[in-house]
Each structure stands twice: as structure tokens, then as C-alpha cells.
Write a structure and sequence with these properties.
The complex is a heterodimer of chains A (329) and B (454).
Chain A lengths: L13 H26 L14 H8 L7 E4 L4 H6 L4 H8 L23 E4 L6 H15 L5 E6 L6 H12 L4 E7 L2 E2 L2 E2 H4 L15 E6 L3 H16 L5 E6 L17 H11 L1 H11 L5 H24 L15
Parallel strand pairs in A: 1-2, 1-3, 3-4, 4-8, 7-8
Antiparallel strand pairs in A: 5-6
Helix pairs in contact in A: 1-2, 1-10, 1-11, 2-8, 4-11, 5-6
Chain B lengths: L2 E4 L9 E7 L6 E2 L4 E6 L4 E5 L4 E6 L5 E5 L3 E6 L50 E5 H15 L3 E5 L15 H5 L4 E3 L4 H13 L3 E5 L10 H9 L1 H4 L9 E5 L15 H5 L5 E3 L4 H13 L4 E5 L1 H4 L2 E5 L12 E4 L4 E5 L3 H14 L4 E5 L2 E3 L3 H11 L2 E4 L8 H13 L8 E3 L10 H7 L3 H11 L3
Parallel strand pairs in B: 10-11, 10-12, 12-13, 13-15, 14-15, 18-19, 18-21, 21-22
Antiparallel strand pairs in B: 1-8, 2-4, 2-7, 3-6, 4-5, 6-8, 9-16, 14-20, 17-19
Helix pairs in contact in B: 1-7, 3-4, 9-13, 10-11
The chains are: A alpha/beta (329), B alpha/beta (454).
Chain lengths: 329, 454
């Protein structure tokens, strides 16, 4: 992750940079609030925060069009916000309330939105990979040019079903972009301790799949790579692998003692590589915004997140009758 | 405005912890995300971060204090112009107290009244019939549904060019082409996941497992991805998919290729489970399965594939799920079975008739939903029941049928229900041992005589 950040180019407009800033900040503030609500006992079970990795989903979504699909693992809050799902509905699902996307029946790890083409939220490591290829299979079968973004982590990258999927995805030229979010730690096991491979994306070459590594802390680099991958898929030359080199600031879940890495390592990434600070600098240096403009955005985001939290606290628990619904269509 | 910092819950089960160390002191300015303290839980020592910016007003709990309850105030955070003693605003309400679980309103708890069997003929009287094998019936069902709905496709190992490992899909590639008859590599976990994904994406896949033994590689997608998504998504999306293929023992193929999964899948809410015996059921139920908006497990049997039965000649013939078929009416005992088990049940009933015992034979046909009422109505008439299945005895379908009869028709029973099952051993290869591991007609006859005290 030592590569220099992309400098703002003339084709990155003020509006686009401001949009990236807003979206990444929304994810970060939302996740901070989720951590807070977890600490208060309002969110139960497992809660996996996306803080640090915001540039990945925001950059990828910048290359998506209506009809494209996305799905990911259990670290899914950022993906839902980035594809336009309502923060209130997401937060209320975290608190297990009827106003949640799954009416409180899914929780943090299992959320869906048919309207926004978000296909979960999967709690089984790696399971979303063939599911994503299957969504792409359906789009190809139906003859449209939609693309499916299938996100998974460096941990899932060692699951056998990933390679079963690579094999069939390339065999059938499925329009799927495999986005490996390499945050360097599968729970507490670093990539170095789990594989001898130097990179994860190059494993796709064994199946004939194109791919590349990308600075996942640089939203502009992510967007540029996503556009390339999407273009290949829409042209019938999918699949494509993007290995996003990123970093999670918080623990694997809320109950992570973080003994597997040093505080210095985390602080170094935060101070040198932070994706939000990067865009903030681009906005200020490019004269696109001043401190007051950004403060106004911060305030706006804080209000959205606070509203979501209030909604999630006030929304009633699901009716007990819900226990018996949605088992069969 | 001062706010309280509360003892956080740092794991799903944490109720209290030790405040091991403060990393800030009163008067310190803190930023959102800054580590405030180390907290020991029963599992680990964790760092606790600030969620807001401000100045530490008071540290309310001293370092080293054990047994600090979750949500107890441990410090106050004040703004720059506030006194450290500012009264904190009341904290947000903690999680609502759990509400008592609803009284179980399951069918099992209902009194045994008004039991009306739904069993009835599957086609109008006088319908023309033709004889066909189970194999042909399955093929016809798929071909008819593929003609009717362009989003139905078949996927699996050797379903296309090889014409089906058991010839069920023979000819389908010629009629529907490789887009709709998809040969897969030998990769059950992967292609089952792709098929479930395709079902989320609007298609209606039929996944053929060469045998259900190999579906063990794919069972995570069948249960975690297909069966649970409708519930987990609050009804937004489900998986209209059929998983089909031969299930149970064939002959002399040993332990890894001879297992009955009926009871396994029947346990899963969200799945429908079909175990046909006859060709007419194979056809009518498979067509129904392909149209069903839920994931359906369709358990066939290799030994039955070549068996011939009468099948009605109708343009569009389906059989609803949850409707048992009474193959033979009787008065002395009820024999309940499904799938290949019906072979033993019917053979036993024939021989028992010669001994003067009149057995009623019920084919459940679907195990989810299950037609309890037809079984109960019959047992109330005969007062005796024997269940017959090829699977293992622990957690068998017969256990569940027996328990249901006991709960809902206990007073009608004149004898304990007996479960006839396969033996509680992995399937041996040796011919003589395999014969003993499998269920036999003689065992069913013996069980019936036992419940009839003969």
C-alpha cells in the first residue's frame, strides 16, 4: 500500500469529489454510531464495522448503473449505504426492530434490498461468491448487460467454493466483478499467516480470469479500476478480479481484543492512508471546498446518522406474529 | 452539553467487566475514535474508544474496578466551555427487556378433533391412463415445464451431452439447447451456489445431483442460502429452485453412496421435501415443485427409476404438496411410508391380507409439508400404526409420525407405534451384509403382527 495516491485529475469534478466525501463520511459516522449503540446493548450478537475500508464500496459504486447487483459478507453496512439503502432501515435492522430492512429478522449480517439490488449480507464466509456468480448467470441468461459486484475478504479467498466459482465464471463468461477486500486480517490471522501466495488476485490467472491489485484506500483509483472491470463484463469479457488493498481500523467484530496487530500499525495507516482525509485534502487543495463547507457536510451527515439512530431506537420490536411469517413464499 | 460514557458491552454475552486501565485523565481533550480505556471481559482485554469528541469531565470508576455492569456510567464527557461537574444528560434507554416467547401455536398441540383427511384421487374418474416408468415421468415433467416457462433450466453433472447419468434428462439437450441444459464441472458446492444465486436473480433452476450423497458438498447452500433467505430478508426475496436426484441405497455401492437424506432435509423450515414413489406422483409432484416459489428437495430413487406405473393422460397434471395417498384401504393397522419404503409396505400388506390382517397403506409423498390428518384419521380407524422407511432409526420420519400420533390420538392407540427403518450402521458392501442392513418386507410383516398382537 505504499503507492502514492491518485492526484485529482481534471476529470474528477468538484461534485464527484464532494459526493465521495459525503458517502465515505456517512459510512464512517454510521459505523461509529453502530459501535456506540452496540456498547449500549441496543445492538446484539455480532457487529462487524467497515471503518477504514470506505473507499472500496464508494469507488466501486461509482462505476455501477441501475440494474447492477451487489452482495457481500457479514461486514455489510457500508455496502448497503453506498448503494443507496436508507440509513434508518439499516440501523433499525441492527437494533432488531420492525423498521429494519428485514423487519428485524435478519440482523447485522443478513440484510437485503430488492429495490436497490442488494443481495445480502451473508454470514457464511465465502458463500456469497457462487451466489454472486449465479446472479450474473441470471443476467446473462436473461440477455441484459447488468454486472454483479461480488465482494469478499482475504479470509474468504481461501475457501474452496471461491475457486469452484472462478472456474465456472470464466468457463461461462459471467458478468461478475469479484472484489477482494484485502484488509490484511481474516479475523485475527494475517494474510501472511494464511497463505504462501504473494497476491490473491493472481490466483484467478489459473482459471484465465483477468485481474489486478488496486490501492483500496484511494477512492479515485478504485473507481478507475472498477470502470475497467465493468466495461470488460458489459462487453461479454467477464469475469474480472479486483484485489483492493485496504485496512480495517476496528476489530473483526465488536468483541475483538486486537492482539494480532500493534496499535502503531493501526495508527500509521490512519494517519498516512486514510481514504476520507485523502479526499478532504483533494477538495481543500483543489479549491473545491473550504473548511466551512466541509464542516457543513459533517454536520449534515451527523444529523442523518443521529436520525437513523433515533429511528432505530424508537421503531417497535417486530410483532410476535412475525415469528411465523416469511418461511414460505 | 455533558454526556455520560457508559460501560460498553464488548461481546454478545458480556454483562459486566473489569475497568483495567484508563488511558485518559480528567481534563484531557479526546477525539472520536481515541482509545479511552482498556476493559477486561471474560474472554479478553479490549480497547474502548471514544464515540464523540469533548473533554473528560469525571472518571466515575477507578482503574482496576471489577464487576462493572454494562451500561453503568464510567465517565463524563463535557464540552470546552462546561464545568467538569456539569450534570450529564440522561443516557439513552438500554435495550428493551426481552418479551416472553409466544405460546407455541403449533398444530401438534391441538386437540384431536375434526381431523379430515385431504387424501382424494389426483385425477378425475375416467381419465385415460398410460403406462410409463418413473424415469420417463420425471423427464416429461421437466420437458413440459421447460416448454411452459423459458426461465426454467436444468443444471448438473452429465445432464446434457452424456444424456443424464441415469438418463433422466435424455433428449432434453436436443430440444432445449445448451443454454437451458447446462453441463457443469464436478463441483457441487460451487454449482449449487450459482444455481441459488440464479434463483435470486429471477430464474427457476432445476439442479440435478448425480446422487444426493454428493449434495453433502452443497448442503450449506441448500440450507443456509436457499432455505433461509426468504425469512432473513423479511420476505423480500426467496429461492424458487428444485434440487433433485437419486437418494438412498442403490445396490452394492457401499457406505458413501447409500444414504437416505429424507429426515435430514425434512427438518429444515424453508425447504419443501418431496419423496415420490410412483410414476404419476413423480410427474405431478415434480411439475408442482418446479412451479413452487420455494426451494424444493426432490428425492428420487435409482431402483424405482425403471419401475412402471399408470400415469394419467392430461395436458397439465400436477399434485399439490401435503396430500398423502392411500394406496390400500384397510381396517386392522395403518402402515405409513414414502418413496422406496412403499415397496416394502405394499408387499407386506399383500402378504398380511393372506393371513387375514387388513392393512391400510399410506404414502406420505411429501415430508414438508406433511399430511398429518390423513395419518391420524386412519389410525383413529385402525388403532395401530407401523412406519416404514429406509433411513436410519435415530431422528427418523417414523419417530416424528409416532410422536404426532401419541400427542394427537393417544387414546385411539391399542399398541405402541413401531418404526421400521434401515439398520443403524453405515451401508456395508458385502452382499449378505447389505441385505441385512436394508429394511425387509419380513420386518414390516413382523412389526404389523406385533402391533396386532398376532
Amino acid at each position: 500500500m505504499a503507492a502514492p495516491k491518485t492526484a485529482a485529475k481534471s476529470n474528477n469534478s468538484k461534485e464527484e469529489l464532494l459526493g465521495f466525501y459525503r458517502q465515505m463520511l456517512l459510512i464512517r459516522r454510521f459505523e461509529e454510531k453502530a459501535g456506540q449503540l452496540y456498547g449500549m446493548g441496543l445492538i446484539g450478537g455480532f457487529c462487524h464495522l467497515y471503518i477504514g475500508q470506505e473507499a472500496v464500496v464508494v469507488g466501486i459504486e461509482a462505476a455501477a448503473k441501475e440494474g447492477d447487483k451487489r452482495l457481500t459478507s457479514y461486514r455489510d453496512h457500508g455496502h448497503m449505504l453506498a448503494c443507496g439503502m436508507d440509513p434508518k432501515g439499516v440501523m433499525a435492522e441492527l437494533t432488531g426492530r420492525s423498521g429494519g430492512y428485514s423487519r428485524g429478522k435478519g440482523g447485522s449480517m443478513h440484510m437485503f434490498s430488492k429495490e436497490k439490488h442488494f443481495y445480502g449480507g451473508h454470514g457464511i464466509v465465502g458463500a456469497q461468491v457462487p451466489l454472486g456468480a449465479g446472479l450474473a448467470f441470471a443476467d446473462k441468461y436473461l440477455g441484459n448487460d447488468n454486472v454483479t459486484f461480488t465482494y469478499f475478504g482475504d479470509g474468504a479467498a481461501n475457501q474452496g467454493q471461491v475457486y469452484e466459482t472462478y472456474n465456472m465464471a470464466e468457463l461461462w463468461n459471467l458478468p461478475v466483478v469479484f472484489v477482494i477486500e484485502n484488509n490484511h486480517y481474516a479475523m485475527g490471522t494475517s494474510v501472511k499467516r494464511s497463505t504462501h501466495s504473494k497476491t490473491l488476485w493472481e490466483r484467478g490467472a489459473a482459471y484465465g480470469i483477468k485481474g489486478e491489485a488496486v490501492d483500496g484506500m484511494d477512492v479515485l483509483a478504485v473507481k478507475a479500476a472498477a470502470e475497467k472491470a465493468v466495461a470488460a463484463c458489459r462487453a461479454g469479457q467477464g469475469p474480472y478480479i479486483l484485489e483492493m488493498m485496504t485496512y480495517r481500523y476496528r476489530g473483526h467484530s465488536m468483541s475483538d481484543p486486537a492482539k494480532y496487530r500493534t496499535r502503531e500499525e493501526v495508527e500509521k495507516i490512519k494517519s498516512e492512508k486514510d481514504a476520507i482525509e485523502h479526499v478532504r485534502d483533494l477538495l481543500l487543495q483543489g479549491g473545491h471546498a473550504n473548511d466551512d463547507d466541509l464542516k457543513a457536510i459533517d454536520k449534515d451527515i451527523k444529523a442523518i446518522v443521529n436520525d437513523a439512530a433515533e429511528f432505530a431506537k424508537d421503531s417497535p420490536e417486530p410483532d410476535l406474529a412475525e415469528l411465523w411469517t416469511d418461511i414460505y413464499a | 452539553m455533558a454526556i455520560q460514557i457508559l460501560m460498553p458491552a464488548l461481546s454478545p454475552t458480556m454483562e459486566e467487566g473489569t475497568l483495567a486501565k484508563w488511558l485518559v485523565k480528567e481534563g484531557d481533550t479526546v477525539k472520536s475514535g481515541q482509545i479511552l480505556a482498556e476493559i477486561e471481559t471474560d474472554k479478553a482485554t479490549m480497547e474502548f474508544e471514544a464515540v464523540d469528541e469533548g473533554i473528560i469531565g469525571k472518571l466515575l470508576v477507578a482503574e482496576g474496578t471489577a464487576g462493572v455492569k454494562v451500561n453503568a456510567p464510567i465517565a463524563t464527557l463535557v464540552e470546552a466551555n462546561e464545568s467538569a461537574d456539569a450534570t450529564p444528560v440522561p443516557v439513552a434507554a438500554a435495550a428493551p427487556a426481552p418479551v416472553a416467547a409466544p405460546a407455541a401455536a403449533t398444530a401438534a398441540a391441538k386437540a384431536p378433533v375434526e381431523i379430515k383427511s385431504a387424501a382424494s384421487p389426483d385425477w378425475p374418474a375416467g381419465t385415460a391412463m398410460k403406462t410409463m416408468t418413473v424415469r420417463e415421468a420425471l423427464r416429461e415433467a421437466m420437458a413440459e415445464e421447460m416448454r411452459a416457462n423459458p426461465n426454467v433450466f436444468l443444471m448438473g453433472e452429465e445432464v446434457g451431452e452424456y444424456q443424464g447419468a441415469y438418463k433422466i434428462s435424455q433428449g432434453l439437450l436436443d430440444e432445449f439447447g445448451p443454454k437451458r441444459v447446462v453441463d457443469t464441472p464436478i463441483t457441487e458446492h460451487g454449482f449449487a451456489g450459482i444455481a441459488v444465486g440464479a434463483s435470486f436473480g429471477g430464474l427457476n433452476p432445476i439442479v440435478e445431483f448425480m446422487t444426493f450423497n454428493f449434495a453433502m458438498q452443497a448442503i450449506d447452500h441448500i440450507i443456509n442460502s436457499a432455505a433461509k433467505t426468504l425469512y432473513m430478508s423479511g420476505g423480500q426475496m426467496g429461492s424458487p429452485i428444485v434440487f433433485r436426484g437419486p437418494n438412498g441405497a442403490a445396490a452394492r455401492v457401499g457406505a458413501q453412496h447409500s444414504q437416505d437424506y429424507s429426515a435430514w432435509y425434512a427438518q429444515i423450515p424453508g425447504l419443501k421435501v418431496v419423496v415420490p414413489y410412483s410414476a404419476s406422483d413423480a410427474k405431478g409432484l415434480l411439475k408442482q415443485a418446479i412451479r413452487d416459489p420455494n426451494p424444493v428437495i426432490f428425492l428420487e430413487n435409482e431402483i424405482l427409476y425403471g419401475k412402471s406405473f399408470d400415469v394419467p393422460v392430461l395436458d397439465d397434471f400436477t399434485i399439490p404438496f401435503g396430500k398423502a395417498r392411500i394406496w390400500r384401504e384397510g381396517t386392522d393397522v395403518t402402515i405409513v411410508s414414502f418413496g422406496i419404503g412403499m415397496t416394502y409396505a405394499l408387499e407386506a400388506a399383500e402378504k398380511l391380507a393372506a393371513d387375514g390382517i387388513s392393512a391400510e397403506v399410506i404414502d406420505l409423498r411429501t415430508l414438508r409439508p406433511i399430511d398429518y390428518d390423513t395419518v391420524l384419521a386412519s389410525v383413529m380407524k385402525t388403532n395401530r400404526c407401523v412406519t416404514v422407511e429406509e433411513g436410519w432409526p435415530v431422528g427418523a420420519i417414523g419417530n416424528h409420525i409416532g410422536a404426532t400420533i401419541m400427542m394427537r390420538a393417544f387414546d385411539y392407540l391399542d399398541a405402541p407405534v413401531i418404526n421400521c427403518t434401515g439398520k443403524d450402521v453405515p451401508m456395508p458392501y458385502a452382499a449378505n451384509l447389505e441385505k441385512h442392513a436394508l429394511l425387509t418386507t419380513a420386518e414390516v410383516i413382523e412389526a404389523v403382527k406385533s402391533v396386532c398382537y398376532r
